[in-house]
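Appendix B, example 12.
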Amino acid sequence: MSGLVFAPVPSAEALRVFREKLAPGKVLRLEEASLVLTPELVQLFQELLEALSRGEPVRIVPLEAELTTSQAAELLGVSRPYLVRLLEEGKIPYHKVGAHRRVRAKDLLAYLEASRKRGREILDELTREAQELGLGY
């Protein structure tokens, strides 16, 4: 797995037109190669194109991929030492290959989702307390 790739973003109009034409059963052709779009592929392309239209960098990683600590830290947007601390505290599952830690992409994504959920819950709690105190939130 290589680093993040920043590609020039096609025009918003080109992305919109392409997204509108995506539908299950349609055929995507590149020269002599073709691919029938399944509902899952359409959803994947829609999400990819939506992120690109917002100018976000995108990386596709198989859920079963085993990542090094450097790769995992990069995907989370944290330092490698911080990630290692999360691993050692048991917050993200990992296993060792020899002396090296490996993290499955799906475990990393599960941690990220749980972390975001906790953040939303904390924000909701703070908002509720601010409203109870009449702080205008």
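The chain has two domains: 12-53, 66-132. Residues 122 and 128 are 10 Å apart (CA to CA).
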